[in-house]
Every structure is written in C-alpha cells, then in structure tokens.
Design goal:
Blueprint lengths: L1 E9 L3 H12 L4 E4 L7 H5 L4 E2 L4 H6 L6 H11 L6 H9 L1 H10 L5 E7 L9 E4 L5 H13 L4 E2 L2 E8 L5 E8 L4 E12 L8 H7 L18 H8 L4 E2 L4 E7 L18 E3 L13 H9 L6 E6 H7 L1 H4 L1 H9 L3 E4 L2 H8 L3 H17 L19 E13 L2 E2 L6 E3 L5 E7 L16 H17 L3
Parallel strand pairs: 1-2, 1-9, 2-6, 9-18
Antiparallel strand pairs: 3-5, 4-5, 7-8, 8-9, 10-16, 11-15, 12-13, 13-15, 14-15, 17-18
Helix pairs in contact: 1-7, 1-16, 4-5, 6-16
Bound molecules: adenosine-5'-diphosphate.
Adenosine-5'-diphosphate binds next to helix 1, helix 2 and strand 7.
Length: 457
C-alpha cells in the first residue's frame, strides 16, 4: 500500500509534534508516524522543564542578567566544548520565541512563579510546565494536532527511507502491528524525530562499551535509535555517538528517573551509606553519576525536609511516585534523623555530623566542602525524607549531523536532499554532556525549524 503527503514526520515526541504543526501551518499536508501505541515518547515522561534565557518568570522573580549568550556558554562548557557553537547559538537565540510559541499557540501552562536551576546553569532559567512533567506539553500538542487535523498513525514503525534516482528522500517504508508494509511518500520531505537510543543496549555497547546491560534506563522502549540507523544506511554522517548520559538519581529497581528528587535543585543533599556527602549536588549529571558509582554499593541517598520541599513543591507534583517509592521501601519519612537513618542502616553519627555542617554552611551562606552553587538550605527541622537512588542511562547526546536548517548532512558535509532531523537523534548540540532542561529547548527550537524548512518557509 502507498499513501502520499507533502511531509512525513517520524516520531511523536516534542520534536515531532513541533515539526508537524509548523509544516501544517505552512500549508502542507502532513502525517505523523509513531511506532508505539501512544504518542509522546520521552518528552511525555520527562520533567519537561525548558531552559529559556530572559523568560517571563525570570522577569517576575526579579532575576536579572541572563542572556542567550550566557546560556550558550553554559551549554558548551557543560558539554566539554564538543557541541557545535553555531548550532548552540541557534538554540539559545530562539529559545524565548519557542517558549512563547508553546505558551501562546500551543497553550502549554507553565508555572508562573517558579523556575529550576539545573546543574551547570548560571541562572534559574528553566520554565516548569504545570504538573512538572511532559504530560502537559504532550496533551496540548495532541489537542493542537487534532485542531489542525494532522493524522497520527500509531503502532506504525518506520523501517527505511525511500530515495529517488538522484538520492532525494521521497518517503519512508513502514510496518504496522499486523506486519503489513506501507509506504508513506513525501513530496517535500521527511522529518526524522525518532529520539535517542538509550533503550537499545546493543547500540549503546557498539558506541560505548561501558554503557552495557549493567545500566537500566530512564527512557521509553521506543528509544532504539531507528532514525539514526535509517539515515546512516543512506549515507548520513554520525557524530559524538560515544557520549551517553546517565541521570544520577533514579529508581534502583526500575531505572525510572526520580522527579520527586528534583528537591535536589533546591537544597536536598546527597549522602552515602556512611552518612557523608561526596559531591556538589548541583554538579553536572556525569560528575554526580560517576561519584555515586564510586560509593559503597554504587548508590546514593538523597536527604531533604519540608523547608526544601516548600521551595521545590515536587512532593505535591509527584504524589504517585512518592507512593510507589514507599511501597518499594526506597523512601522513608521520619521525624528525626535517627529514625530515618535507621530505616536504611545509614551511619547515624556521621549523618548527624554531616547535617550539622550543612546547617552551618546554610547559615554562613558558604558550603566550605563542596561549594554548592545554589546555596545550601538548613536541615535543622524535621520531618526528614531519605530516598535511595542510583544512576541510569538517560540521554544519548550523539546522532545525526544537521545544519541550521535541520537538513541532514553526509560525512562530507553535503546535504541529503529531502531529509530533515530534529531532537534527540541529532548529535551536534549537547557535546559530551547535556545540561538539565536543555532537551526541551533543543527539541522545540529545532523541531519548529524542521517544520518551517520542509514547509517551504
Ligand atoms: P524527542 O525528544 O527528540 O522529541 P522522544 O523520545 O520524545 O524524542 O520521541 C521520539 C518518538 O519517536 C517516540 O515516541 C518513539 O516511540 C518514536 N519512534 C522511534 N522510532 C520510531 C520508528 N522507527 N517509527 C516511528 N516512530 C518511532
């Protein structure tokens, strides 16, 4: 069977929806293909915080001095200057416009008076969607796609790119759940937005032997690198494939990211089995993950109190996760440190000494041991929460090489005509390490560009 559209978009995460909506609004006929039974990809299950310099919440909170240039510098430095400065500049220059588009056109609700400062960022600049997850973003994207009458084909896996005699990409081959094969032809172009390869262990090992089955992953089972493999087969260049990020604080049984533990951005501390801090809690994800793996058992405990949660409000946002952790005995709430420590058999004496030091550093406004960049918060008052956690594979920084128009490039730098890509399957932005809150900025900015470019803007 064969169907024809102007534009075929493969993968329905944030990048795919952004591309499909822009192309449709440019007057094109568009279809969105998704291999899973539901839309959303990792965008859906992420916290979906979005770094935006000079955003409206910064203005409201009186945070001054941020700029696209400073965010670009943070991003490049956070990725060991492996990212492409030109592409990073595009991302940070267009971040505000993309966020306003999400707010005004897609009707995403962002929390009006709260921002996150993820590790490696010089400012609190991450907008938080209502509910602190991507559910808000994907729900509104679906609604918009419905309004625009963009057909979404679920349970349909793209397997190959189709090219004409000149090598221009003119469509995709796909298979549905009944194993029927269908060709979706694209007059103007194909946009690949299939996400990363975090749940493809073989592919992880092929590019980085350390990222083997000993790591669980935070990502959905759809993240198997399909778009990267399909494009490579027709000559696309790959870059930075060995850079695979672990998220430091995840469920030790399931690998799932702990969003409840976002209290870390507002003062929660990390300790080991011996009751000692061992890393700055706002360090880069790779630094924290590696530090955790060096501790007894290869795990950490995160400790906070209600004063910290009053700032971060994650307990309210992630009640379901809290209940699940209680059931799994991976979190304890207790009035005293003794009681909390006892639950996990943590060295009480050392823990109390650690907390006393933290309280002193909070008072002094200076963390003399680890130089916490956000400033520590006093843990004098209980009740206390202690959550056990470990790192898990989270984001694959490498992937396809694209240019500023999101055209996919060959190894030699020439354009593969008719093929565009945006989102986690591209490899040029984040370098060796992606900073928190930068994925949503990346996928929305470049997803929109892909849709506009293929839409003939
Ligand atoms: P991004 O953050 O880059 O938008 P996501 O992980 O949020 O990436 O979304 C990628 C989506 O692409 C997921 O929903 C995933 O199931 C889908 N996908 C992956 N491979 C294929 C494929 N071969 N065919 C169709 N959809 C795919």
């Amino acid at each position: 069977a064969e169907q024809s559209y102007d534009v075929v978009v493969v993968g329905s995460g944030g990048a795919g929806f952004s591309a499909a909506i822009e192309a449709k609004e440019a007057g094109k006929s568009v279809i969105l293909i998704e291999k899973m039974p539901a839309v959303g990809g990792n965008t859906l299950i992420s916290g979906a915080e979005m770094n935006v310099p000079n955003n409206w919440v910064q203005k409201k909170l009186g945070i001054k001095g941020d700029s696209p240039e400073i965010m670009a510098a943070d991003t490049l430095k956070g990725g060991d200057n492996v990212g492409d400065p030109e592409m990073v500049k595009v991302m940070t220059d267009k971040a505000l416009e993309a966020a306003e588009w999400l707010r005004d056109d897609i009707k995403v609700s962002f929390i009006e008076d709260q921002l996150f400062q993820f590790g490696g960022h010089s400012y609190k600049r991450a907008l938080i969607p209502e509910g602190h997850t991507g559910a808000e973003v994907i729900k509104k994207f679906r609604k918009k796609a419905e309004e625009l009458k963009i057909p979404i084909k679920l349970n349909t896996t793209a397997t190959d790119l189709i090219q004409d005699k000149e090598g221009k990409v003119t469509g995709i081959k796909a298979t549905n759940r009944e194993d029927q094969s269908i060709s979706y032809m694209a007059k103007d172009g194909v946009v690949l937005t299939t996400g990363g390869f975090g749940s493809n262990v073989e592919m992880r090992k092929k590019y980085n032997s350390k990222m083997d089955e000993s790591y669980m992953s935070t990502v959905t089972e759809g993240s198997t690198g399909d778009g990267i493999v399909m494009a490579e087969k027709i000559g696309a260049g790959l870059t930075n494939m060995e850079s695979i990020q672990t998220y430091p604080v995840c469920n030790i049984e399931t690998g799932v990211i702990s969003l409840l533990a976002d209290t870390r951005f507002d003062g929660a501390i990390l300790i080991n089995q011996e009751g000692l801090r061992f890393v700055e809690e706002l360090e880069r994800r790779d630094v924290i993950s590696n530090a955790i793996l060096k501790q007894t058992g290869g795990y950490t405990y995160q400790l906070w109190n209600d004063d910290i949660n009053d700032i971060s409000k994650t307990m309210e946002a992630h009640e379901g996760e809290y209940d699940e952790l209680v059931k799994q005995k991976l979190i304890v709430k207790a009035d005293t440190l003794e009681e909390a420590a006892d639950f996990f058999d943590i060295d009480v004496k050392q823990l109390k000494a650690t907390v006393e030091k933290v309280n002193q550093y909070a008072k002094d406004g200076e963390d003399k041991e680890f130089n916490h960049r956000g400033g520590l918060v006093s843990l004098e008052k209980g009740p206390y929460y202690i959550e056990k956690a470990a790192p898990s594979v989270h984001h694959t920084m490498g992937g396809l090489i694209i240019n500023e128009k999101t055209e996919v490039l060959k190894e030699d730098g020439t354009v593969i005509s008719g093929l565009y890509a945006a989102g986690e399957l591209t490899g040029v932005i984040h370098g060796s390490n992606r900073l928190g809150g930068n994925a949503i900025t990346d996928i929305i900015v470049f997803g929109r560009i892909a849709g506009q470019e293929v839409g003939g803007k």
